[in-house]
């Protein structure tokens, strides 16, 4: 017998009712999660007590976000879904203890964008004027963590960050990668056709050189201290009736109320900057980790070869090697090495033990989860 039952068409009012019902369930579950986070804080205070309590656990958050991406079935993409959970986790953590995050400022820089991407928006932002000030702010306890750039895929390593680890006792607690998208921005009060000057940091101007040569060859390019400063100047110019453009990112665009003339104008679409999270804690293994070392090699033939040979023999994947002057002796050098694994892993411990026997000094800067977002 034929099935004569007809399906009810999904009309717009019915779909909206479903969305309202789902929203109500989501909201109730988020609040339930927040209540659990508050109870976690109470348990930690009871067990650890006072200032010794560690509310932020980088390895735990990395594991949660990885599971979010693994079980995601769409239609939202894995990264988009993880970003949603990232903010939920940030809001819940703020109920335990709002974190103060120092970063290389001013506000509106890509470093602030990295801080928000890693910690979510429920933090207290603390822009610093220089990288060494970020380190001091965390060392003094005025900030819980700091965010500093360490390398760019087109411009290379940030030496000031590497050098700051020489005398600091801070640990690397995490990393975050930010795809660098530059936008041409103007004030809503400005006439784009009248723009004669384009402000930005010198590196951003260099990273957009071909695009500017093609589309804005007659505009004068003015290098300023940061992209955020360029955005501020463009906003100020618009209020004064002048037409000035800036090259900056999304955070600066929102912060200074600018309008995007052209988006993603960088010459290399894969331009990415890696940032480090620095703090005072050792981070337990998360299951997918990276370790960073500072090594002072002995000044003798074959010293570097013997250091690198230990990684090959124990099957540990070294992902980065940088050289910096030691400042302790003329033509002396120290090496910064990143490798895959946690320093507590058996193979990694074997490598570090051999390095200590072959180098003048080996300093473990930290083991931390590989960037999830």
Automatic annotation (TrEMBL):
Q: Which domain of life is it from?
A: Bacteria
Give all residue intervals belonging to the ACT domain. Answer: 292-369
Asked if the keyword Cytoplasm belongs to this entry, the reply reads yes
Q: Which CDD domains match?
A: ACT_CM-PDT, PBP2_PDT_1
Q: Which UniProt keywords apply?
A: Amino-acid biosynthesis, Aromatic amino acid biosynthesis, Cytoplasm, Isomerase, Lyase, Multifunctional enzyme, Phenylalanine biosynthesis
* Pathway(s) of this molecule: Amino-acid biosynthesis; L-phenylalanine biosynthesis; phenylpyruvate from prephenate: step 1/1; Metabolic intermediate biosynthesis; prephenate biosynthesis; prephenate from chorismate: step 1/1
One MF annotation (Gene Ontology) recorded for this entry: prephenate dehydratase activity
What EC number(s) would the UniProt record show? Answer: 4.2.1.51, 5.4.99.5
Q: Which reaction does it catalyse?
A: prephenate + H(+) = 3-phenylpyruvate + CO2 + H2O; chorismate = prephenate
Where does it mainly reside? cytoplasm
Q: Where in the cell is it found?
A: Cytoplasm
Q: Name one Pfam family in it.
A: CM_2
Where does the Chorismate mutase domain start and stop, copy by copy? Answer: 6-100
What are the residue boundaries of the Prephenate dehydratase domain, all occurrences included? 100-280
Which InterPro entries does the record cross-reference, listed alphabetically?
Answer: ACT-like_dom_sf, ACT_dom, Chor_mutase/pphenate_deHydtase, Chorismate_II_sf, CM_dom_sf, CM_II_prokaryot, G/b/e-P-prot_chorismate_mutase, Preph_deHydtase
What's its job? Catalyzes the Claisen rearrangement of chorismate to prephenate and the decarboxylation/dehydration of prephenate to phenylpyruvate.
Name of this protein: Bifunctional chorismate mutase/prephenate dehydratase
Q: Please report the organism this UniProt entry assigns to the protein.
A: Marinomonas arenicola
Gene (name only): pheA
